[in-house]
Design a protein that fits this description.
The chain is an alpha+beta fold. The chain is 13% helix and 25% strand. Strands 1, 4, 5, 6, 9 and 10 form a six-stranded mixed β-sheet that branches. Strands 2-3-12-11-7-8 form a six-stranded mixed β-sheet, with no helix packed on it.
């Protein structure tokens, strides 16, 4: 009923080692490596370019009408035309290039006309008649352009009390082959030097026609009778001066001649349309 051998050792009532209540190694409460102190980059490492490095061109760089403005221009003598000329700009100033008449003054590069119209040789500088300056300007701040309104200002010297002197303003659409159109004829207000403002706003505003190189003519004439409205009138005391201006192209502006032709084409289309409609009406009524 009992084992034949009594155990040699008394059984161990408990484990020889007290059980560990916790892990043998204390767990690391935080990662073994401290995380980097640099937070995430909230934005790219390089700041974004807020705008293109080169500003966009607001208008095409070529062709069409550009918004770039050349501004005021000073005329220089152009031997091809035989008169002062200006590049594209909001104004054109002859400065001293026209001062005097013929050899009186003297006038540099006289006669300063596109067609060889000659000046009178009689009298004395600033005792008798002369066109001394021409100033052409756009009525807006923009450069002179086809279809835009410009004003021609003239500085002249009138003889005596001015009652016998008249100033003529002409313009031509093609400086290479000028066909002069009279704008205004104005009597001198008094004798002596007439300032630009005396003549400027009253007498010489007009709309530029179609044409890249246009011209303006100012003539002062001593008249003792009926006026001569031609663009070149010889006289001992007369002075005629021209200025060539380069005009900015406006593709949307047809110009007088082109506009008339375009209207004719449109009228022909309407006429043909009406004629076809009448034919169709007659054809339908005969059925």
């Amino acid at each position: 009923p009992l084992p034949t051998h009594v155990p040699t050792h008394v059984p161990t009532p408990l484990p020889t080692h007290v059980p560990t209540d916790l892990p043998t190694h204390v767990p690391t409460p935080l990662p073994t490596h401290v995380p980097t102190t640099h937070g995430a980059t909230p934005e790219p490492t390089h700041a974004l370019t807020p705008a293109p490095t080169h500003l966009p061109t607001p208008e095409p760089t070529s062709g069409g009408v550009t918004s770039a403005r050349a501004g005021p221009q000073t005329a220089s003598y152009n031997p091809t035309f035989g008169a002062p000329s200006c590049s594209i700009g909001s104004s054109c100033d002859s400065k001293s290039l026209l001062d005097g008449r013929h050899n009186l003054g003297p006038e540099p590069n006289q006669p300063n006309t596109l067609d060889g119209c000659l000046d009178g040789k009689s009298g004395a500088y600033h005792r008798d008649e002369s066109v001394d300056a021409i100033f052409i300007s756009s009525d807006s701040s923009d450069d002179m352009m086809e279809g835009s309104t410009i004003t021609v200002n003239a500085g002249v010297f009138c003889w005596g009390n001015g009652s016998k002197d008249f100033i003529y303003f002409f313009h031509a659409a093609d400086a290479s082959n000028p066909n002069w159109t009279l704008m205004k004829r104005v009597q001198c207000a008094s004798g002596g030097n007439q300032s630009l403002s005396d003549i400027q706003t009253k007498y010489a505003s007009y709309d530029l026609p179609k044409g890249a190189l246009q011209a303006v003519r100012v003539s002062i004439r001593y008249e003792n009778g009926d006026p001569n409205l031609g663009p070149c009138f010889s006289g001992n005391y007369n002075d005629t001066d021209d200025v060539v201006i380069q005009v900015k192209e406006d593709p949307s502006f047809l110009g007088t001649a082109v506009a008339v032709e375009a209207k004719k084409v449109e009228d022909d289309k309407k006429k043909n349309k009406r004629a076809n409609a009448k034919k169709q009406l007659r054809k339908n009524s005969s059925r």
